[in-house]
Amino acid sequence: xxxxxxxxxxxxxxxxxxxxxxxxxxxxxxxxxxxxxxxxxxxxxxxxxxxxxxxxxxxxxxxxxxxxxxxxxxxxxxxxxxxxxxxxxxxxxxxxxxxxxxxxxxxxxxx
Length: 111
Description:
Layout (H helix, E strand, L loop, with lengths): L14 H11 L3 H10 L11 H11 L9 H17 L4 H19 L2
Helix pairs in contact: 2-4, 3-5, 4-5
């Protein structure tokens, strides 16, 4: 994925750094709320995002934090698509939301 945000495949910046970078990069309130749900403080897998938790769960066969993140990934993906379709987003927010959608879509497809 382009843009230098380091999404996916256990890549990018660790946990709260990636979360803070994204939160500081977007202006739309609903998108900020979605990022808060996708990137949790103190996450330890990959970049701290939901997509990396899903990748870990699929690759290793163990749940992250004792629970499956696949259903949550599907719900967040639907939420991001709704935001993209219904909210007025600036260029930067649109770029970031599309990268988040792509990252989650890929994580949910990977086997």
